[in-house]
Amino acid sequence: MTGRWGSSAAVGFVALIAIGVAASAEIPANERRSGFDFMRRETQEMQRDDTANPGMLWVRDGEALWNRKAGPAERACADCHGDAKASMRGIAARYPAFSAEAGRPINLDERINECRSERQGAKLLPHEARKHRAPVARVADRAAAR
Amino acid sequence: MDHQSSPGGATRRELISAAALVPGAQLLSVLMASPARASTPDGMEASIREFVGEASMREGRVKLEVPPLVDNGNSVTLTVSVESPMTEADHVTRIAVFNEKNPQPNVAVFHLGPRNGKAQVQTRIRLATSQKLVAIARMSDGSFWSASVDTIVTLAACLEG
Amino acid sequence: MARALSNVPANAKRGKVIEIKTLTRHPMETGYRRGASGEEIPRDIISRFTCTYNGAEIFRADLYPAIAANPFISFFTVATESGELVFAWTDDHGKTQTETAKITVL
Question: The domain containing residue A11 runs over which residues?
Answer without folding.
Answer: 7-43
